[in-house]
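step=predict obj=Peptide chain release factor 1, mitochondrial-like isoform X2 n=238
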Amino acid sequence: MFDMYQGLASYKNWDFEIFNYTPAEYGGLHHAAVRIAGESVYRRLKHEGGTHRVQRIPEVGLSSRMQRIHTGTMTVIVLPQPNELDISIDPKDLRVDTFRSRGAGGQSVNTTDSAVRIVHLPTGTVAECQTSRSQLQNRDTALRVLKARLYQSMMGRETEQRLTARKQQVGTRSQSERIRTYNFSQDRVTDHRTGYVTRDIKEFMRGGEPLDDLISELLEHGDKEALLELVVTCSQRY
């Protein structure tokens, strides 16, 4: 998934800056945070946020007779980067912790406390960065991530109030919260919002034209949903 979005950024000529990359103990990725910047980047990526389901046969850690299809999920969160004037934070509301960077298996990869974790005390919101050897650079990056999360939280409260009435009437239109399934054994990717299906999962995971085409389809779908929401809201008012 990480490589897919990195591939999409390359395909769209967007900047791709890694803030945090934590490998999983047995291979793969446990957690990552990146900054992607470029033309229309948030508009095109906002619908990627949600729960992604993966169905595959694990490559490591199982005997041959136990190599059956395993289902896992991962969460993608897409946040807009606010401008400096969009949100202000009182320094007294922040707690800044420093620690040594950690790699796969939890071992330290740096001999100095260059990694930074910032906690916004009034809300409990946390952001951290450990990608740079410079503590100041990690602090600056973590603060940017924290502002983005606080901004998203404020916007989320407004959006939730606006959508609650309609959700109560039409439901979520899905039996679960997953937005997309990647089935490696069947070589299939299915997007559960639009019904999109592709049978070439390897090409899709490169993050090039197939993913970009799906994003365009999701944008059109989102515009239709927004128009329907507006019609419902207007009908309730009048």
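step=describe
Residues 165-175 have pLDDT under 50 and may be disordered.
step=end
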